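re: the backbone from monday

yeah here it is again, tokenized this time
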């Protein structure tokens, strides 16, 4: 079983999560949004599992730089933004067999989910 970890490599939270997984020898494959993009069908699967406002990172630089009028207010506008600017997606997003296993990084949560 290999987890898929979505994110951007220069994100400190992603670095912490990858280091945590590596230290515990948990197999993962990293998907770099910047180099590999994001398949719209994959995003639709995530949106079927979680509300859009959980997937959007409202504390990041990308969000803060968005003009108020460009900030999403519903699933359609959030989907369009996430496809256009993948760095607005909360990261890392960890997936197994198409299911979201973890969103973001909290050591206690990871210890429980990956036990």
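seq for it, each position gets an aa:
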């Amino acid at each position: 079983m290999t987890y898929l970890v979505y994110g951007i490599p220069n994100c400190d939270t992603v670095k912490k999560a990858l280091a945590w997984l590596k230290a515990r020898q948990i197999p993962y494959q990293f998907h770099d949004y910047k180099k590999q993009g994001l398949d719209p069908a994959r995003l639709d699967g995530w949106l079927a599992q979680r509300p859009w406002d959980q997937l959007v990172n409202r504390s990041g630089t990308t969000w803060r730089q968005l003009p108020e009028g460009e900030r999403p207010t519903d699933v359609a506008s959030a989907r369009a933004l996430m496809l256009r600017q993948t760095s607005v997606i909360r990261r890392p997003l960890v997936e197994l067999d198409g299911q979201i296993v973890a969103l973001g990084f909290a050591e206690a949560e990871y210890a429980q989910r990956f036990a």
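The CA atoms of residues 22 and 28 lie 8 Å apart. Residues 3-113 form a domain with the Glutaredoxin fold (CATH 3.40.30.10).
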